[in-house]
Structures are given as structure tokens and as C-alpha cells.
Amino acid sequence: MKAFPRTPLAAQPAQSHVEHTVLGGALVPWVGPTMEVYSPTMGESPNGPARVCLGSIPRMDGAASLAALDAAEKAFDYGMGEWPTASMATRVEAVEAFIKAMVAVREDVVRLLMWEIGKVRPDAEKEFDRTVDYLRDTIQSVKAMEREAIHFREEGGFLAQVRRVPLGVALIMGPYNYPLNETFTTLFPALLMGNTVIFKPAKYGVLLITPLMEAFATCFPPGVVNIILGRGRETVSAIMETGRIHTMAFIGTHKGASDLKRLHPHPHRLRAVLGLDAKNPGIIMDDANLDLAVAQSLAGSLSFNGQRCTALKILWVQKGIHDAFVEKLSTGIEDLTWGLPWENGSKITALPENGKTAYLNELVQDALSKGAQIANASGGQFDETFFAPTLLTGVTADMRIYHEEQFGPVVPVVAFDDIQEPIAYGVQSPYGQQVRLFIQHPESLGRLVDVFVQQVGRVNINAQCQRGPDTFPFNGRKDSAEGTLSVYDALRAFSIRSLVTFASTGDQKALVSEVLSHRSSQFLSTDFYL
Predict the structure, then answer these.
(1) How many other C-beta atoms can be found within 10 angstroms of the C-beta atom of residue 3?
(2) Of 133, 196, 272, 367, whose CB count within 10 A is highest?
(3) 261 and 139 in a common domain
(4) What's the rounded Cα separation, in Å, for the pair 275 and 484?
(5) Do residues 255 and 303 both lie within one domain?
(6) Residue 210: which of 62, 68, 56, 72 has the closest Cα?
(7) 3-state SS of 40-67?
(8) In a domain, 56, yes or no
(9) What is the pLDDT of residues 387-407, one digit of tens each?
(10) Are 138 and 230 in a shared domain?
């Protein structure tokens, strides 16, 4: 049996106690109740193994959240505030200043990504750097959007200029598995389009925002960015019930998203961008390249312990290749190194969610009681926060793991003869994010592509499921998503087209020309943005 990773007492970090938040453009002290933040890693202590306490954060309540809403609403001022009326050049300058401040604290954020959610150092560094790249790419995309918007269109005797304008106050909530990247990929498009923001960090991965709080407070005008800390039910519910939130970005479960939207008294007015549950299947046909299929299945199922919405959550393997595939995949799983996030070569680490190992064990025990088998030697082992990667074979439709999104290091394999079996699974599934097809036969591949593009948002051929490149659309069907994200699509998601039109006659043209030449309107403009 492999040893479960432990953090020596001497290696545990000094605790960080956050005593302020960002409100109305300032770092505001918090004097109310607090809540402790724990690492998923188990540390040595005088009383035996225990989760490492990393510090504490404010436990804000509904009143504090409403103060943040008031600040954001005041800054927006019905679209007439300093930020929504600012030129795109001004907004870009503010974001560029933030990026500069962000890069300066890279190591602090990377270190907290490792300690707070158990992400290994290479992945933590990749998340940080990819986020910076995303922000820079978004700036280039919004500049291109501005250049396109300077043109006037003439139709039916009328001239019009069409531009995108902000929606209002945006509520941004990110996930714990990518608490920096997937949060900022909605937060900054919302800001660049002129919205004011209330930002609720993820339940796990909140301390890593604290090195950036000063930059949020100083790089943007007062009230443009407001941060609420604490438990979602004690903070977010109060502001949703007011009906004063205009747009919401949320990454989590479809049940959580539905509960939030139901709190809004005017849900038809709420623009939502949602990244939700997924049960992405991988389909491996008899003619697949076996080594490639195994390598991609290993990475696709177990990168960051399987805690990715884009992870492969169930593998359908045709019987002619099943035994060889399982043998190779089992060997690959056993070769993965269990370790602490900062240790070289670590691949499998502890899980941050409370009660996660007990839940995964329930899924495994349910499957075993109904005829499944564990195919790898260390499978099924667990302690308080660590669950060994577990390969389950003989999985059938009467098992919970067949239906439920495990979001952890359990890999279920279903053997099949007839391709209609995995097709029926995809059609009947309540989820529709992605699918992965491993196959070499062109005609069969073409038919499968045509089936699954009607069921999921992305079909991956001979490659694992994933989000990137960030210029590609990222969406889903059914209970897996609402709206589309990408560098360009996110800007559209947090804005709406508005147009100014006038008759194409000499006097009206002359009037608008005067507006343009005197630069008396931010909206009506033909200035080319370099």
C-alpha cells in the first residue's frame, strides 16, 4: 500500500488572517465574525494527522453584501457612472495596470493555489500564466471590437452606428477547481465592457485572492469592483433577492444555478452565463490507437485528480480492445505519484471538498455491490482528504457512478459491443458538455460526429476533453451550461448591442457630424483605437 502524503509540522505555513475586503474602491476593515480556511493536505500535529489551518477570512452577512451592491449600483449609476461611460482606452489602461500588479505577486498566488486546493506546482503556475494571457488576449479582442464599431451602416434611408454597452451590475462567482482562471475569464470581460462587479470568490481558493485585493481597490474607480467573502447562502442570497443584479456568471452545479436564479424576482431580466455539471464520455472503438487512447484517457480522467468539468467522467470501451485497454490504463494509474502539491513529480493530491472522500467511497461501494470490480492495485483506498485513483470495470446502468458526476479520481469503464449503447447514453444523458471519440475509421467517425454535435458542445477526436484554446467557444447543452464563453464570446455575454440611428439626409448628417467633430458623445465616435 502506498503511503498517504503528510505535511511535516515544520513545513506548514504561517497562518494568514484576512481582516478586510474591497468595498467602494477601498480596502475596508472587517470587524465581524470570521471563518477558518483549511488546506486539503493533512499535516502532522501533536494530536495526530489534521488538516492544515491556513488562516481565516471575514464571514460576511447579508447586510455587508447589500453594502457591496449599493456601492456597485452607485458606481454604475444607470449607465452614467464614471466606469460605464469611460472610453475603452481608459478601461483597458485600468486592466493593464491590474495585470502589472498581478504579475508582481505571481509566486504568492501560485503558493496559495497549491496550499488551498491541492493543485500541483506546474498546474498552479500554468493556471496563473494562462490567466494573464487570457486577460491580454481579451484586451486585444476588445480593441478589435472597438475598431469595428466605428463604422456607420446605411440601410433604407437611415444611417446607424451599433455599439455594445454594459448591462449593469454583474455578480461573478467562480469554481474552486480553477478559482483564478475561470473566475477572471468572466470577471474581466464584464469589467472591460463597462459593468460594475460584485465578486464572490470560490468556497475553496479564497485566500489566493487576497494578494490581489489592493490592486482591485486601486486600479479601478470607486465601487467598480466589490468583493464579498463568506458563505454563499449568507451573502449572495440577499443581493439576488433584490432584483438589482443584471447579469450573473456562475460555475458550479445546475441545481445551485437554478436556486440562485429562482431568488431573482425578475429572472427574465437576468443575463446568466453558467458553466455547470458534466459527465463527459470517452468512446474507445476497437480500431483506436491503443497507446494514444490510454495516454489521453489517463490525463483526461485524472489531471488535477479528475476535478475538472472537462474531465472524462465515464469511458465506453468496445469489447475487442477492452481488456488490453484496462490493463494498460491500470498500469498507468499505478505509476502516478501520490504527493504534496509542491513536490516534484506529484500527480495525485488531496481533495479540498469536505466529505468528498466519503462520497467517492459511496460510489465505489455501490458499484462493487452491484458487480463492478476495482482493476488497479491501490484503487479504493482513502483517508480523510485523499482518495487513491480508482479504476472501476464492469460498470452498468444500475450503478450510481454510471449517472453521477464524481468530480474526483474514480474512473468508470463500461464495456460495449454495439455503438448504439454509448450513443443512447449520450442522447439520454441530462448533460451535454463534451465527448471524446477514439477511432480511426473515417466513415464511422463521420457518423459519430454527426450524432454527438447534436448532443454536446464540443466533440474531441482522438484527444481528451478540454476547454482551450481560449479563442474556441466553450459551451454546453442540457444541464451543462448556459451561454458561451471564449475570449470574444465573453465580451458579448456581458454586454448588449445598442444603436443610434438617423435619417440619411443632409441636415441630419450635418448634425451628427457636429457631434462627432466636437466629441460630445462617448457612444457616437469614429475615433480609431490603436
Answers:
(1) 6
(2) 196
(3) yes
(4) 9
(5) no
(6) 56
(7) EEEECCCCCCEEEEEEEEECCCHHHHHH
(8) no
(9) 999 999 999 999 999 999 999
(10) yes
